[in-house]
Structures are given as structure tokens and as C-alpha cells.
């Protein structure tokens, strides 16, 4: 059903989802979430290992193809998405009641855990998600030979489907759609996956800093 080009973009995402499901099942079995926090490091390590294994297949990432103006646009987009992410939090904009990721142990913040969390969210997750959502899914909806499709040629149908699905991947579904739209437009306009990865990384990295400073652990 899927080509190798598809699978190498799907598998890192599936590894990530597997760990999310595993944590949920363990929590339902009565294990406290605080005791499961270490699984995040395992999850990020597994995703990183999968990305590294298939790295030679990600030819679009083998060189940095953004000039200074494009880099600046991506960074600014990431900051704007962050501001909207922490603002679009009305009750009707949220699905469920996330427990978040609380790094406080014995009344103190576990800074190693925080560092792993922010590094994973800013350096690994953007690569994994952009390869799946933008490089693969948005183009695959238009063509089975998606790797040959210029990002600028992605159809409105694929754009909308990708944005909606990306939004509902997150409990902050509206913020997720806004982020998905922003990253997708960057990818389509700049025709570089590095542009959406960079914006995504800026959002996630700054979000981690904001969470630690404010103590809003549910955003994790």
C-alpha cells in the first residue's frame, strides 16, 4: 500500500504514537503518571533512533536550503504560533483534560528532566512531525508518488485535511489547526521542509521555556 518513501516518514510517527498509547494504558492500569515520566526520554530516544536509521532516505533534509530572509520568516512564524498556542485555550477549544508533564520531584524541578523534555520537543519532534504531516501526508493525499510533488503544488483539499488532522492530534485542537496551517503554508511557499521544521522547533522550544517559567504543566 505504501512505498518505502512513505514508510520511512510514517514509522517515526508511529513509534511516537506507540509510546503515547503505552503510557495511557499503564495509567489506566493504575500506575501514577509521575512514575511514568521517564518514558518520555525513552520515547524521544526511540524516535531519534528511527530517524537516524532512515536518515539517508530524507534527501530533502540533507542540506540547509534556507536563506536569511526565509530563516527569519520561519523564526517569526514560530514565535507567533507560540503566542497563539498559549492564548487559544478557552474551554471549547480544548479536547479532554490533559495531565501534562510535571518535572517537580520532591518539591524541586528536576532540571535534567526539563532539559530532556525541551530538547525532545524542540529538536526531535519537529523533524518527526514535519516529515509525517507535511512531507508525507499532505503530498500523499494528492499523489501516491508524493516525493515527486513540489510542495507549491499541494492542493487546497490536501492543505485542509492536513491542517484539520494535525489540529485534532492535539488537545488544544484550534491552536493545533492554527499551527498546522502556519507550518503548512511555510512549507508550500518556501518549498523547504526545513522552514516548517524551524518554525515548529521555535514554537516548541519557547513553549517549553514558558511552561517552566509559569508552571503551566498541562501544556506539556
UniProtKB/TrEMBL annotation:
Segments crossing the lipid bilayer: 6-26, 38-55, 67-88, 109-128, 159-186, 193-212
GO biological process: proteolysis
UniProt keywords, alphabetically: Hydrolase, Membrane, Protease, Transmembrane, Transmembrane helix
GO molecular function: peptidase activity
CAAX prenyl protease 2/Lysostaphin resistance protein A-like domain ranges (all copies): 114-205
Top-level lineage group: Bacteria
Xref: InterPro entries: Prenyl_protease-related (IPR014346), Rce1/LyrA-like_dom (IPR003675)
Name the record gives this protein: CAAX prenyl protease-related protein
Organism in which the protein naturally occurs: Massilia mucilaginosa
Amino acid at each position: 500500500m505504501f512505498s518505502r518513501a512513505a514508510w520511512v516518514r510514517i514509522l517515526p510517527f508511529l513509534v511516537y504514537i506507540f509510546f503515547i498509547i503505552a503510557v495511557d494504558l499503564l495509567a489506566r492500569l493504575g500506575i501514577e503518571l509521575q512514575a511514568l515520566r521517564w518514558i518520555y526520554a525513552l520515547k524521544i530516544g526511540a524516535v531519534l533512533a528511527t530517524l537516524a536509521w532512515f536518515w539517508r532516505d530524507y534527501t530533502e533534509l540533507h542540506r540547509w536550503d534556507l536563506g536569511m530572509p526565509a530563516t527569519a520568516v520561519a523564526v517569526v512564524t514560530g514565535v507567533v504560533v507560540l503566542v497563539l498556542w498559549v492564548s487559544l485555550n478557552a474551554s471549547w477549544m480544548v479536547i479532554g483534560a490533559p495531565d501534562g508533564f510535571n518535572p517537580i520531584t520532591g518539591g524541586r524541578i528536576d532540571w535534567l528532566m526539563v532539559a530532556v523534555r525541551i530538547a525532545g520537543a524542540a529538536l526531535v519532534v519537529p523533524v518527526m512531525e514535519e516529515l509525517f504531516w507535511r512531507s508525507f501526508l499532505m503530498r500523499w493525499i494528492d499523489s501516491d508518488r508524493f516525493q515527486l510533488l513540489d510542495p507549491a503544488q499541494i492542493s487546497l483539499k490536501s492543505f485542509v485535511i492536513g491542517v484539520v488532522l494535525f489540529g485534532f492530534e492535539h488537545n488544544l485542537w484550534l491552536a493545533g489547526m492554527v499551527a498546522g496551517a502556519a507550518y503548512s503554508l511555510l512549507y508550500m511557499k518556501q518549498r523547504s521542509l526545513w522552514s516548517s521544521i524551524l518554525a515548529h522547533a521555535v514554537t516548541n522550544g519557547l513553549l517549553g521555556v514558558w511552561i517552566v517559567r509559569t508552571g503551566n504543566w498541562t501544556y506539556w
